Amino acid sequence: MSTNLETTNLKTDEMIINMGPQHPATHGVLRLILKLDGEIVRHVEPVIGHLHRAQEWQGQNRTLFQYQALIDRVDYLSGMFTSLAFAHACEQIDGCQIPPRAQYLRALVCEMNRISSHLLWLGTFLIDLGALFGFPFYPFREREKLLDLFEEIAGQRMMFNYIRIGGVQRDPKPSWFEKVRKFTAEFPDRIDEYEAIVTQNPIVLKRTKGVGILDKSVAMDYGVTGPSIRGSGINYDLRKTRPYGIYPELNFEIPLGQNQGDTWDRYMCRILEMRQSNNLINQCLDKMPEGEISGKKQIAGLRIKAGEGFSAIESPRGVLGCYVISNGSDKAYRIRWRNPSFCNLAVLPSLLIGRPISDIMAIFGSIDVILPDVDR
Amino acid sequence: MSELLNNDLNSTDLARENAALISPELADTVTLTSIDKAINMLSQIVSPIANLARSNSVWPLTFGTSCCAIEMMCVGMSAFDISRFGSEVFRATPRQADLIITAGTITRKMASALITLYEQLPEPKYVIAMGACTITGGMFNDSYSVVQGVDRIIPVDVYLPGCPPRPEAILDALLKLQQKIRTENYAKRRVQAYQQRPVCYVDYDCGRPLEDLLAMAMEDTSLALDQK
Amino acid sequence: MSQTDTNKPNETKEMELGKFGKFLKDNGIDSTRKDDSINVETIVISVKDLEPALRLLKTSSETKLNMLLTISGVDYTDRIDSIYHLWSYDHNDALVIKVELPKQSQANTDTVNLTSIANFWSAANWHERETYDLVGIRYLRHPYLRRILNPWDWEGHPLRRDYKQLVDALNDKNPHSFR
């Protein structure tokens, strides 16, 4: 498309357009300063920080116990993962043991959260492509079921504060596991339903095939992770490459992009990941052992040993890392987040340049950026 | 009818307001008090009917910065279905909206954009401060970059606590706002109306209207001149 | 704030060189090893060696540490550390590189200077901007060193230990606040 536009010999002026921070499709408050030549994007400058809530500053001014409640807001669509990254870092510095039941519960709720995050992505991605308020009803229907399940164990729909340093917050009732089983039994059919609507839809194919091709070397140079880089064919998933928790005991596959790493590949990766996660939930339910759920006493003056460490997990958006420097007191000396969205968004300008303006939202939606994860 | 006419509704304010509306040629013929009384009377007849219509079609702006925005999306979906109350039409531009639901933390960097959005909204306009962050700053109220409550920068009609509030709570806030709209009187509202101004050009770097920047520059120069 | 200053993490004694320390020494770059951070080799190198060392570690087929996770700045009141976490897309090794920047040696204590690596490693671009914004390490020769999270006209670096928070009409403290 772009080549057609470029071969015409019309003389055009460059124009600067400001997109955002209030824009329905920027997933919150991203601002893009675009330099356009006709319809072709010539230069992009993302302006971020409109949602900078000083999470790292809060980390060194609040006790560890207080901060646990705060970090669900780092990435609100996948709060379990931010809690898990923080808990992992603290546990490894402290050297405390996590009981196996807590490990399995963690993996279970994380995979459920991965599905709910991908479902919301699917809905908003289709909104970005123009399927406004038609298709999004479908993924949100299943997401509500998951949120009800989360609410039953954590007491909140989105800000769970469920995974704590040393284990998890509370043990679900046996009836809860039955509800999860019921969900996993019907969910593959629901994914089939989404795919029947979207995957081979000619409009979606036209908007996504060959659009926003993320080259392997570019992606690695920018430190892109998660489904965005797996869409380009690089098999990098921390659950396999640097296994944590009980993932070595579980059996699953890492879906990879089949083509050259375009928007459609990234879409397909996430759809297949949801199927894998559904499979993982079933495995966790089957293998769920009995026993304790926390290896550390949950008190307000929670302390960990002095030391420092970086720990990372595979969130729905990529490698989510937390670097904790502890001095042995109940506050951390410094907490630093390595957010997948922040690193993935940095690659956006190189994907947009040379594309028409209508592709911006398709490409931006496909790398699944979430703004509090960028700005913290 | 005579009761309505005699029902004097802060007439001095109205008189001041209307003085600007009457052209100089007509100043002798029209007495200010008669216009006030006519407006009062009309608004008491028309307002209840108009309010009923207005309150059932409050169109919100798609303004969401963080966590609350996801719950704001959920409330539009089939499980909660805000369209039962006539507010399903989320508008992307403030010029077509009646209501801002400030869903999510407002930071210093975002504050100027929010003020601009509020100014672009046509009167009558309403604000629901959704979530703890927009009421007081919430969990982040001591952060260096967070505005401690959206009511520090724009007027708020309904406060909706929670972090984030459940979708049912959003519906409740909307119903409260509808009640408020139904009790409104056109003449009263007209007096209290936010001074609308056309925002023609918003600066590209800082997101503020050009008028504000010019005023600030004028102030700076006058201060500098005073110091000399 | 003053409490945390006195409770700084303990300084550690020097140790033998690890795998990557030896590799760097073979290529003529000196480093000292610090305590491991969760079983990951942690080394300290000097300011002038930073750029060649990272360039070598990224491209050499022996190390292939081609994934820059994050660049963090940590204020230890007397010095500022710039910390580089390196992983690899190809294998499971990891390395933490620290550069210590004493505040006294700088002419202007408001910012400390360090060489940018954004010219050959795109991932560093935004991380360096962020560290400049929050901690105040000025990365020299950076292509576009501008504040990224805070507004462009912001004053001060919030994650410094001596940062004084701006108080105005938007966030004047409630006198009854417990903090």
SSE topology:
The complex is a heterotrimer of chains A (376), B (228) and C (179).
Chain A: H1 2-7, E1 14-19, E2 31-37, E3 40-47, H2 55-59, H3 64-70, H4 79-94, H5 100-129, H6 137-154, E4 163-164, E5 167-168, H7 174-198, H8 202-208, H9 216-222, H10 227-230, H11 238-241, H12 263-287, E6 307-315, E7 318-326, E8 332-338, H13 340-345, H14 348-352, H15 359-366, H16 371-375
Antiparallel strand pairs in A: 1-2, 2-3, 4-5, 6-7, 7-8
Chain B: H1 2-6, H2 11-19, H3 32-55, E1 60-61, H4 67-76, E2 99-103, H5 108-120, E3 126-130, H6 132-136, E4 158-160, H7 167-182, H8 186-192, H9 210-227
Parallel strand pairs in B: 1-2, 2-3, 3-4
Helix pairs in contact in B: 2-3, 3-7, 4-7
Chain C: H1 2-6, H2 19-26, E1 32-34, E2 41-44, H3 50-59, E3 67-75, E4 79-87, E5 95-102, E6 112-115, H4 123-134, E7 137-140
Parallel strand pairs in C: 2-5, 6-7
Antiparallel strand pairs in C: 1-2, 3-4, 4-5
Which key terms come to mind for this protein?
heterotrimer, B: 228 residues, alpha/beta, Rossmann fold, four-stranded parallel sheet, 9 helices, 7% strand, flat, disordered N terminus, C: 179 residues, Beta Polymerase, domain 2, five-stranded mixed sheet, two-stranded parallel sheet, 4 helices, elongated
Quaternary structure of the protein: heterotrimer
CATH class of chain C: Alpha Beta
List low-confidence stretches of chain B. Answer: 1-11
Order of helices and strands of chain B: HHHEHEHEHEHHH
The major sheet of chain B is characterized as: 4 strands, parallel
